[in-house]
Each structure stands twice: as structure tokens, then as C-alpha cells.
Amino acid sequence: MDYLSTKYLRSRKIPSTACSGCGLGQCHKALVKAIDEVGFGINDIIWGTSIGCAGRQTYATWKGDSFAGTHGRVYAIARGLRLALPPEKKLVLSVGDGDAFGIGFNHLLHAVRTNTQMTVMVCDNLGYQSTGGQYGWTTPEGVVTDSSPYGMFEPNWVQSGRDVLAILREAGATFLARHVSMDGAVLVGTLKKALQNNGFSLVHVVYPCTTNFANTALGTRKPVTIFKWIKDRSAPLGKEKEDTLWRTGVYHDASNSRPEFSQLMREKVAEIHGRHEREGTD
């Protein structure tokens, strides 16, 4: 184990049980590295996870406090915890694309609407890979999957003029970004910014699935093929090419520009208490 694993992660969870060649470890390591570089310790972070590959691989890996939510409900749990926890504690969530942009989208929107402090890393393997490789909300158009043998044709959240990050921005998110897991140090830098926002932050990270997606869509399970396929179809904002699927970088940074939900609630409760105390003395 490297120093990050030794410092922050439970030894019984290392190495991961993810499939050989899975890019989820890149996502996880980038987030842990960002936490380390910002200067947060084990007791500063409460780590939440969801269902699917992203949740299964990261649940109870953090040495500190952690929790898991059922399908799409981790954001609702996180909002409740945010009200119960001391303000200095930070919530970090590692979730999958289906959990964030599918079944959990409604709960996610309410976390965004209220600007509840949480840093959400959406680990996107481009479909429902933990249940066999069906297409999902972010599967690229035309891709062959277990449930789209003639190519995925439904409109998705990241192509043809739609972008789920635009919806989240309009809903009130104060930090939004997108990367691919191979972005390395650039991804770490973005996650550091997300962690330092006292409000809702989301970083959408596309990562390679070698077992289901690569095997069906590309006809091979060789990690180098799927890693290159994703990297070749990503480009920094402003440097897009004709075949760019994922524009990477910070989409929106309004960090610390809106009151955070638990802070707003505490202030409102204090105001109500003060009002009643004044009325009681009149």
C-alpha cells in the first residue's frame, strides 16, 4: 500500500475487489489525494456511498466514519446528516452514474437546491455495469451494450445539446466539473476546489469498465483499449474536437457564494428563538 492507503484507508479493503483493469481506483485515489493535499484528516470527513460499482468498492474503505444509502437515497441521508453534524465536518459521497443521474436524480436536485455541503464524485462507467452492462443515462449514442444490441439510441445526459451539469447549475449548484479518470493531477486539482466549497459540489468523472462496457462496445477487455478510447474522446473546455464526448474541466465555480443549508437553518432557528424570547419579555 502507498502512503495514502496506509493513512486513510482500511487495510482489509486494499487491494480493491474491483475487476482487473477497472478505472474506479483512479477516481478513488484522486479524491483521497485531494483530501490529503487540502489538509483534511480522517476525523474531518464522513464518507457516503451508494449502490453499484462505485458504492460497493468504496463502502467502509475510509478509515473514518462512513455510511451507505440504498438506490438514490444517499443524498437525502447526507442532507439529514449535514443538519446533525458540527459545521466543521465535511461530507464526501462517491456514487455511480445511475444513482446520481437516474434513480437518485430527484434527491440530488434537492441537495443542489438547498446548497447542502457535500462533495459528490459521480463515478461514471457509462452504464449499469454491475448488473451486466445495460445502457444507462450517460451511455454514448450508438454504443452496443447488453441491452442495446443495435446501438444505444435514446437521448442521454451528455450529448446532442443536453448536459446534466447545466441542469444542476440552474438548480443552484455552486461547484460543477467534469473529468475522465485518466486526468490525474488535473482531476486532483479540481477535487481540491470542490472540497473547499462550503456548499454543494459535484465532479462527474468518466472511468473505464473493462469487464462489461469494453467487452461489448469495443469487443475487447484489454484495459489499454478502453482507457485510450475514453481519453481520445475527451478534451479540455475550449479545446474540443469533432468527436469529443466529454469536455473536461470546471464548468461552474461559484464557491461560497450562497448560504449553506445547515448554516441557513441554524441562523433561522436562532432568529425564531430570539423572536420568541423577545415576545416573552414584552
TrEMBL record:
Q: Which residues form the signal peptide?
A: none
For this UniProt record, the keywords arranged alphabetically read as follows:
Oxidoreductase
Which Pfam family, just one, is annotated for this protein? TPP_enzyme_C
Q: Does the keyword Oxidoreductase apply?
A: yes
Any single GO BP term? small molecule metabolic process
Entry keyword annotation includes Oxidoreductase: yes
Specify the superkingdom.
Bacteria
Question: Which segments constitute the Thiamine pyrophosphate enzyme TPP-binding domain?
Answer: 60-205
Q: Name any one GO molecular function.
A: oxidoreductase activity, acting on the aldehyde or oxo group of donors, iron-sulfur protein as acceptor
Q: Enumerate the InterPro entries for this protein.
A: 2-oxoacid:Fd_oxidoreductase (IPR051457), THDP-binding (IPR029061), TPP_enzyme_TPP-bd (IPR011766)
Cited PANTHER family: 2-OXOGLUTARATE OXIDOREDUCTASE SUBUNIT KORB-RELATED, 2-OXOGLUTARATE SYNTHASE SUBUNIT KORB
| Protein's recorded name | 2-oxoglutarate ferredoxin oxidoreductase subunit beta
State the organism's lineage: Bacteria, Pseudomonadati, Candidatus Hydrogenedentota, Candidatus Abyssobacteria
